[in-house]
Amino acid sequence: MTLEEIKGRVRSIGAQYQDRELRARRLFIEERANSLRNEREREFSIKSEISTFFSIPHSAVSFCGSAQIGFSIHKNKLFEPCVSDLDVACIDIELFQKAWIDVISTTRAFTDLTPFGTRGLGQIESFKDMLLRRGMIRVTAMPQSACSRLWSQFQGKLSRKHTTMFRNINFAIYMNEYAFCWKQDSALSDLIG
Description:
The protein is α+β, with helices and mostly antiparallel strands. It is 54% helix and 12% strand.
């Protein structure tokens, strides 16, 4: 399919839902990953490994970004095997709380920014903004700790295992399904209007 055909398909599905949460749920939770439409076993395997590693339900693992819908809304380009990333959402309040506690204890409630290493204040503020306003924590943006290193190592291991399909596999942990849908629909609104 061409970029315009895939955009049309996403617009068509999205236009059926006026409610932002329902629209995002339909496209990002209910819909199968576009990039893995011919590789259902790989999709199941990736979700199962993540579910097992984080001790979360299989249904709490969703994909987003170009790997999910077939193109990048922000870059306006098709998903490209081996070039594009797989963005994974782990939607689980207990996992989010574990990550939040790790961030707060590691940084002493953001009074000690040294665990962020060489990241600038702008990047740290962006991380805090995502945490507070979006209920989302990207594993790659977490401050250095035993927990974040373990999670990053797993992310790297899974990425290497699937380099024939994805450049990298990236995890984001969401507080709940509402936070996940809100984040995804903010990107969809640029496309659907």
